[in-house]
Write a structure and sequence with these properties.
By secondary structure, the protein is of the alpha/beta class. It contains nine helices and ten strands. A six-stranded mixed β-sheet has the order 6-7-8-3-9-10, sandwiched between helices. A four-stranded antiparallel β-sheet has the order 2-1-4-5, with helices on one face. The chain starts with a strand and ends with a helix.
């Protein structure tokens, strides 16, 4: 997958606080923006992002608020950039249904429809959005639920599922139409360690299918061992980028070295 970004930047002001109802019921408000600032001020969430490389699996790391979620939402066509361009495999990232159909997106809280069963959460988007026939959609849902050990939860609604099960079903829904790229916005941020492992194992399994993905994560072990490349964001910029093993072994900036040392301070 070829990812190109040229002079990409994004700002938010107070008018963005209320936002607008986003797709899958998500607010338009952005998690990377500090809404405590005055109404006449703008905050740059992303600044002059320039990038051009072929990537297969990329981890976005950095402190909360550094711009990881905003960048993923721009690449997913969920919000527009304030300036610059982002191009994914020759397709410009835009807020348009035809573009979004090519992208699978998994939110921090999964974004499952609460009134639908796990089975329906996967089949209905295939039918309504991607034009699958009913029988084909049901076959694809059954294939994924069985493959990832979720067939017993098929008829349960989100309120009856564990956090790990909900995120795994959200991932199954995202990959069901076989998108060109999967974007995951800190999919384990609200999970206990046991469920975190379940979700990360599922993502690693998908890697074997040659599915390209970009994940924003605080799980440094996953970023190091399961992602070929890593990008460290700091203050809205890509401060470091390269092969995961090289970046983790020899941080080129004091900012990344400090970030990693704080994360590892209390590790067993």
């Amino acid at each position: 997958m070829r990812l190109e970004m040229r002079g990409l930047w994004k700002t938010f002001d107070l008018s963005g606080r209320a936002g607008r109802a986003g797709r899958s019921g998500h607010s338009g408000a952005d998690p990377d923006y500090d809404y405590s600032r005055g109404h006449d001020q703008k905050t740059y969430v992303l600044r002059d992002i320039n990038f051009d490389d072929d990537i297969k699996t990329l981890a976005l790391i950095g402190r909360s608020g550094c711009g990881k979620s905003t960048l993923l939402r721009i690449l997913g066509g969920l919000i527009p950039a304030s300036g610059g361009t982002a191009v994914v495999d020759g397709h410009r990232a835009v807020d348009h249904e035809n573009y979004r159909k090519k992208i699978g997106f998994v939110f921090q809280q999964g974004g499952l429809f609460s009134h639908l069963s796990a089975w329906e959460n996967i089949t209905l988007p295939l039918i309504k959005v991607h034009g699958f026939a009913g029988e084909r959609a049901r076959a694809r849902a059954h294939e994924l639920l069985e493959r990832f050990g979720l067939i017993q939860e098929a008829d349960k609604k989100p309120s009856q599922l564990s956090g790990g099960q909900k995120q795994r079903i959200a991932i199954a829904r995202a990959v069901a139409p076989k998108p060109g790229m999967l974007l995951l916005d800190e999919p384990t941020s609200a999970l206990d360690p046991e469920y975190t492992t379940e979700v990360l194992n599922m993502i690693r399994e998908l890697k074997k299918e040659n599915l390209s993905f970009i994940i924003a994560t605080h799980e440094m072990g996953f970023a190091l061992h399961a992602c070929e490349k890593v990008a460290f964001l700091c203050e809205g910029r890509i401060m470091e980028y390269g092969a995961s093993k090289e970046v983790f072994a020899k941080p080129a900036t004091a900012a990344l070295a400090e970030f990693l040392s704080k994360l590892l301070e209390w590790k067993v």
